[in-house]
Amino acid sequence: MLPGQILLNNLLYDTGQLAIPGDKVDEEQLLAPSHWDIAFIRWFMFLFGPISSLFDFATFGLMLFVFTAAPGEFRAGWFIESIATQTLIFFAIRSRRVPFLCSRPSAGLLWASLGVVVLGIYLPLSPVGAILGFDPLPLPFFLALLAMTAVYLVLVEFAKSWFFSRPAQGQPVAHGRGRAHHIHRRSARFSVAAPLNSP
Which uninterrupted H or E stretch holds 53? Predict the structure, then answer.
């Protein structure tokens, strides 16, 4: 994609994500405070990053070898695939549950995301598409895109199920903190590590 197309893609995606603060949260995520876990983030990236790249390469192959796309068509196809997958995949990774069936997002996030996808598909086909550097795409591309996006979301769901089924990624557990914990916490600043010497 051209630099302006990449910036437009990022602008559309980020605009849709502005609705995240109003999203609903699964009950189990409220059992205990969340903490940064770099190891968790690293393994999450190692698993889901290549899956995303795999479908980018599949889109490249589809555009080059099946549709023999011209540069403007290639950019339009990649633009649409990118905005659709990165927006819709958010619903899969926002929860450990199955999206929409077991974990429903807020209406604001849902409509904002769908609006971004619709706008991302419309722009390359609109009168301003040529100004943005896009060429119209054939109808079979959209059918292939629909099939690829469905496969992508299903594959991510299977990967997510495996990832969170590992013992190291178990559900957060609420830790009970009784009276003794609160007394120790409040008295810690007045305590010393070594025992006091008797006179």
Answer: helix 38-61
Distance from C-alpha of 71 to C-alpha of 129, rounded to nearest angstrom: 13
Cα–Cα distances (Å) from 4 to 7, 10, 75, 124, 131, in that order, read 5, 10, 11, 13, 11
What are the pLDDT digits (tens) for 62-84? Answer: 888 988 889 999 999 989 989 99
Which residues is 99 bridged to in the sheet?
A: 103
Describe the crossing of helices 71-93 and 3-16 by its angle, rounded to 10 degrees: 20
Residue 171 banded pLDDT, cuts 50, 70, 90? low
CA distances, 153 to each of 55, 92, 101 (Å): 11, 7, 14
Q: What is the rounded distance in angstroms from the CA atom of residue 91 to the CA atom of residue 96?
A: 10
User: What is the number of helices (H) and of strands (E) in the chain?
Assistant: 7, 0
Q: What is the pLDDT at residue 118?
A: 93
pTM score:
0.74
